[in-house]
Amino acid sequence: MITFYEAKHFSNGDLRALGDARPAVLQQIADYETALSANATSLAAGYLNVARALVRISAMRKHVAGDCFTDQIDPLVISIAENSSPPIIDGRPRLLILGFDKAQRDDKGWQSHLGKLKSVEMLGPNRVKAVGSPDRNTRFA
Predict the structure, then answer these.
(1) Rg (Cα) of the chain, in Å, rounded?
(2) Which residue in 25, 6, 1, 2 sits closest to 129, CA to CA?
(3) Cβ-based neighbour number of residue 122 at 10 Å
(4) Strands 94-98 and 5-9
(5) If you placed Cys at 88, which of 1, 80, 107, 129 could pair as Cys (CB 3.0 to 4.6 Å)?
(6) Separation of alpha carbons 61 and 56, rounded Å
(7) How confident is the model at residue 137, as a pLDDT?
(8) pTM attached to this predicted model
(9) pLDDT for 88-137, tens place per residue?
(10) pLDDT category, 70, cuts 50, 70, 90?
(11) How far apart are alpha carbons 46 and 32 in whole angstroms?
(12) Phi-psi label, residue 29: left if phi above 0, alpha if psi -120 to 50, beta otherwise
């Protein structure tokens, strides 16, 4: 399954809205949902084609470089390419919020905005991930 993310910096005003108003980012995500739904078949076919190409390129590189070729293709990419089965396109994009520190994260005002985004009426708790300052070990799942 391919899941799409909209990444926003903590400072982006579209993440916030006063009172009962809806944050602007919600309309952007709704527009993405519409686009993903309308294009799911072609997106899935595109991922299948890319997976096949990556496997072919990897085989060529290994043929030329021999045993010194150490880069590995992710098993999921190989699975998609070999099974000739396009991946499922998740039509519900997630929101990823980046670029904040502990003090900003714990701010009561921000917590109110984050709570609104995570509410069932908005995106729900499983579609919003606030990760602060990610590094190479950060997992978004």
Answers:
(1) 19
(2) 6
(3) 19
(4) parallel
(5) 1
(6) 9
(7) 72
(8) 0.80
(9) 999 999 999 998 888 888 889 899 999 999 998 889 999 999 888 766 77
(10) low
(11) 18
(12) alpha
